[in-house]
Amino acid sequence: IKAAVMDSMNDEQESVIEPTEKSGGRSAFDVLQEERKALPIYQYREELLQAVNDHQVLVIVGETGSGKTTQIPQYLHEAGFTKVGKIGCTQPRRVAAMSVAARVSQEMGVKVGHEVGYAIRFEDCTSKKTVLKYMTDGMLLRELLGEPALASYSVLMVDEAHERTLSTDILFGLVKDIARFRPDLKLLISSATLDAEKFSDYFDFAPIFKIPGRRYPVDIHFTKAPEADYLDAAVVTALQIHLTQPPGDGDILIFLTGQEEIETVEEILKHRLQGFGAKIAELIICPIYANLRTELQAKIFKPTPQGARKCVLATNIAETSLTIDGIKYVIDPGFCKMKSYNPRTGMESLLVAPISKASADQRAGRSGRTGPGKCFRLYTAHIYYNDLEDNTVPEIKRSNLSNVVLTLKSLGIHNLLNFDFMDPPSTEALLKALELLYALGALNKHGELTKVGRRMAEFPLDPMLSKMIVASEKYKCSEEIISIAAMLSVGNSIFYRPNNKKVLADNARMYFHVGNSGDHIALLNVYNSWKETDYSTQWCHENFIQVRSMRRARDIRDQLKRLLERVEIALTSNLNDLEAIKKAITSGFFPNSAVMQKNGLYRTVKLPQTVYIHPSSGLLQAPPSWVIYHELVLTSKEYMRQVTELKPEWLVEIAPHYFQLKDVAYPDSKKAAV
Ligand code: ADP
Ligand code: MG
């Protein structure tokens, strides 16, 4: 088997790994092989393979960086498991799936997308040759819709199980069941924390395989008093380390909550460093977050040049998903972005929240991988011991479940209350999801999937977006609706606003708001205008639009177009009938409608909740009485993002089972608006 593997590697090797001369005449490929052998897991290779042979389900626990994600699939491949089927490995984060696939393909001397590939939403970088497939847990859930028994897999590794993401938790229940009727399928559940008993118990007392890690002592420092501004405190701490410690001594890792904070800290750091001029050693700033361009993601793994120091600014992704070698100092402000869900209102929001003790310990541990480390916690010891929760609450307990419920229904799982959840979600949240799917027409009164629901489930989108697409058939505007859906799926990175050109950028943005027609139509205008320029980069620059986001929107749109074909919805354009387009949007988003009250504030139609138009909306200057919005974001207030005008009579026309005439009466007046 090994010889065969080596042969196939040699075909590709030259095109990928340049046989550059490294120290002692070894090629880069040889160096990688030596690095592989130096990982803690290498010593347990044979034992691990034996355990996989002996048991169908195995729980694997090992310190972050010990080599679980990159090595185990390779070991199994080398041992011949890929002769009968693929090896799949799920990751909660898409950056991790991409980055690990890149690393493993280098180690195997092949191109990404050939023998080693990855699949994330809207991006499938695999081929017929692919035998090691890294993917997000959400992607595997979708794959199950087409391949319910995972027939093309010989091994499935549910990695980073300790993260307990919503998709991973749902996968647990599904793969446990699949393993029962597919005794030939090997199931590996791998986790970074020692909380493995719980996984073992859940999987019918599967044996636990422990990979002892190397861990050096970490010196932990707390602040004496709480920090008023943790970003500033993080910058000051990083600079102090850099200025007082010799540069060759080790790199710095700062945990931040998201792209915005990372960009802010990067800016402040660069500015302060300029003040020092050339007097000090170079500090190389490396950001890493989910939307970072792929080329830049690779930068964090580049070895630090002599005489310089690296300062990695990372989100939670560096907590366990990615290991960056050479970190000696960790700066932990103690926060992360956390999803929270209120089943009463059905609102999901992303909030900056304190991390758990388990997270804080993981973060600290990142500094002690290659030698003794130091962790600077920007909070007090009192907060750590008294205020932080022991563990993060699993995502399933703080999420909107409509998407997973639709997936489970499509998989033929009807009785959700009986589903084998490791930690069951609240009944209230389950009912809320069923209620929404019923309102959208995806389920009938008996909770069974309808034809609409079946079509909706084909789209890898939230049910409200899928419904909007399915409804576009009726309003003959599928061309426009998939453009809008693609633009919405890209997120909030379409327009940019440079600090010194804010007015120009805002004017450019308003140019797409023809006749106060709303943010959805503006997004459509942007897409169509770009298309008319033949996808010009120059045009994007002139209009303060991110070309990268536009290209992504185009890719997503192409895929949605193919999915339309699958569900047999014709591509039709109805660009001159904006009302039809808005009605299609309303068909999916009617639960997100709001009306202006006498006091000038909006309240949501179904619930008495005050909401505001987001400052980035084109409707801010002339706010209409009735609006529909894409999402709510909670920052200083509950903001509606991507807002479009609505005629209240549409609500009763489109969703008569959801709205009654009294709902569409203007508040504070007895008269219905119809
Ligand atoms: P685990 O899954 O046990 O946390 P990994 O298999 O992810 O460990 O990591 C093993 C080693 O591979 C680490 O030293 C890490 O730095 C290295 N590694 C992982 N991904 C990359 C990458 N994209 N580029 C360079 N090195 C990487
Ligand atoms: Mg890993």
TrEMBL record:
It is an enzyme of class 3 (hydrolase). Residues 49-212 form the Helicase ATP-binding domain. It catalyses: ATP + H2O = ADP + phosphate + H(+). GO terms for molecular function: ATP binding; ATP hydrolysis activity; RNA binding; RNA helicase activity. Keywords: ATP-binding, Helicase, Hydrolase, mRNA processing, mRNA splicing, Nucleotide-binding, Spliceosome. Residues 238-412 form the Helicase C-terminal domain. Its EC number is 3.6.4.13. GO terms for cellular component: catalytic step 2 spliceosome. GO terms for biological process: mRNA processing; RNA splicing. Belongs to the DEAD box helicase family. DEAH subfamily. PRP2 sub-subfamily. This is RNA helicase. It comes from Coffea arabica (Arabian coffee). The lineage of its organism: Eukaryota, Viridiplantae, Streptophyta, Embryophyta, Tracheophyta. The chain holds residues 302 to 975 of 975 of the full protein.
